[in-house]
Every structure is written in C-alpha cells, then in structure tokens.
Amino acid sequence: MASKYSINDTTILALHWSGNIKIQRSCQSTNTVKWADVQMIKKLKYVFMIVAICNASYAGELVSGKKYKIIKPTCLTGEYIDRGIKVLSKETAVAYLDSYKYAMKSYTAFKTEVPVGTVMTIIGPAPKKWYLFFQGDFYFIKLEPDFSQGLDIKLQLDRGIEGNLDGLNSEIFTRL
Known about the structure:
Distance between the termini: 73 Å
Largest sheet: 8 strands, mixed
Shape: globular
Number of strands: 11
Radius of gyration: 25 Å
C-alpha cells in the first residue's frame, strides 16, 4: 500500500496557541484537509477549555440547621435582581456570601466584609436561575450577627466556598 503523502509533499498542519490553523503546501498533495475538519478541531479546543475552566462542584448536600463558624474573612455582596429597580428589599435584591471580594458592578447594592467569628446557619436549598451542569448548588443561609440588611442570603458551592468539610472549604469554615 502506498504512503498517504509522496516524498516531495511538504504538507504541514500546525495548530498554534492562538487558535489559528495554517495549512502550507509546496506541492500537490494526494490528500487534502477539509475546512470542516479544521473547524471541528477549533470547536473541540474551546469545549475542552470551557470544561477545564468551569469545574463542577464536588460538594455534597448541606444539611438544614447545621451551624458553621467563619474562620477567614469573607464578603457579603448585595445585588439587585432587576437593574432598573434599585430598591433594597427581599423582593428586589438578594445577598451572596463569597470567598473573596468582587468588583463593584452596576447591579451591586452593597459589599460588606464578614468578620472572623461570625456564625453561619444553613436554612435550606435555594433555587437556581439557570440549571447548568457546572454551576454549584445554592443554599439559603443566616448569619449571626446579621449583615444582610434584610435580604435573603445565598451561598453558592463554588468559587472557593466548596471543599471537604460537609461540602464547605475547611480554610473558611469550621463546624460548631
């Protein structure tokens, strides 16, 4: 059986880090690379990048009523549900407990640092806005002392919050 390429054939297919694919030929080739194959390679590269960046939460389900002590400063962020209605109430805004402080956005109502020693109580599961496979579970929580300014507080098990302590990060939380 003859080889796919002749000795004089210098077809080079190179995938560069920039995502560009170059096909160079100095002579007639017996095989040609189809444009659809090149596009499929690009799409697969992006799928693998998305899966690597958006890791699924490995945390188990948190038990309602369990209490944890915060042992590392965290950030409580209040966000408006509708950017057009900037009224701070349970119907128009929600608060999130995050492992670190994010930048202020147009829909941010407030940011408060939650000090070490604050007690967090799990109230129960919270509904998700979007059901994406890589999105962590949400839980309603209560903080003592309360920094929520009257809003419901959601805890999302991702972005540094998840871990091996009942599904929570043991560097941020400890059991009571």
